[in-house]
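ENTRY TYPE: paired fold submission
RECORD: A
CONTENT: sequence, then structure tokens
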Amino acid sequence: MVATFECSFLVWKLTGSMNTARFYHTTSTLGNGDVLVAGGTSGAGVLSSVEVYDPSTGLWTTIEPMSTGRFYHTASILTNGNVLVVGGWERDRGISNTAEVYNPSTGFGITTEPMNTARVHHTASILTNGNVLVAGGTADDLIALSSAEVYNPSTGLWTTTNAMSTGRKYHTATILPNGNVLVAGGLSKLGPLNTAEVYNPSTELWTITDYMSHERYDHGASILTNGNVFVVGGTADGRNQLSSAEVYNSFTGLWILAQAMNTARTRHTQVTLGNGNVLVAGGLFGTSSALNSSEVYNPFTGLWTTTNAMSTLRFYHTASILTNGNALVAGGWGIARFALSSAEVYE
């Protein structure tokens, strides 16, 4: 532990640094409370390295690497506690369709069936039946995909499901209380999107729902304790960031504008804390200015409160909810676009 930044309601605490500086990586909170970090890039190369954070000691331990280096992939915690890593940019083959599974007892030793379509900038969602829905992204870094497919952990096989109505990348996907999946915003071949659609796992059909008030991509989305979805920030043109926020009512299917953030940002992290508030941290402002500011949204009052800043400017970092309800922020790009190894905890 190096330093503490305090106010009456917030503590940002530096914890142990990762063994490898990285961004575009993934983090997953395992069943035993540890946090698994996989892949990413150091800026000089694609990483296959994997490490685990122990919240009780604040230390990181490097473990056996993935079978291949990758970044901009997704990582999903399966119902059996394993972690499914899918797609992204691979070290040797570019945009990938490969998948591999991390078992907390044995490590990354399972290479499972590849997806039907190579993709990056996609989303992956755990369905209520334990299957994983992968949607959208791009296979060539140009055209956004509308295709979707489902992974069955019991068989290790992928099945193509119905396509979205719109091809999109840099979108968000959120599991609704009824088990359906809300996909919102993103970037299409024609530009940024304000459209949203809902996937029903029972019928395998997508239904277009109400439009967001703002076109946005590279935004954040969180499920609130009342089952609504809170969407924040992003960009509509790749240069100017949004401070706007809106709420999707899971029961009416309508979007309602919420109070805007104090700071416009994209490529930030956004998590729902144990107390039901939403923490937004870091991100990018303008074309090159990393942020260390953070703010908290209270769904009960509808108000934002600026909190103490993180110790480090960062974007393209990750945020994970620990089993005690705190949030761990790790890595990212910092000042002068250097990869970061530092990590800090919001308590």
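RECORD: B
CONTENT: sequence, then structure tokens
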Amino acid sequence: MVMAKDEKELLSKMASLLKSGATMLDMMCPTCKVPLFKLKSGEVVCPKCGQRFVIVSSDEEESRVKADMVLSSLEQAAVQKINSLIMPLSTSETFEELTEIGRALITLLQVIQLSRQIRGAEKGVAEKGK
């Protein structure tokens, strides 16, 4: 039986993961239909497409993980917006411009702070449930 180049590369990657201490799971990648691997770091990855997965044991845990991911994305977006306001802040020439940028910065910082508070509260609830 002759193996295609792609199949050889995949098998080589899977073998490399096993050699590095990863564990092959009994779950398949929904996209690639190949076994998922749990790395030593705890991350779960597909060796073919590289997609990362979070394995949950209940609907409640899935909801918490999804909420955490959404809030994390929100924080990243807010940080990017803050970064984009640095130049206008340093070049603004009027009090009105400074005030407008300042309000935007305060709002973005509040978004980050609230997101982190919510994520912290969610983690506390999750840990109490264990």
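NOTES ON RECORD B: The helical segments are 5-19, 59-91, 95-129. The radius of gyration is 22 Å.
STATUS: closed
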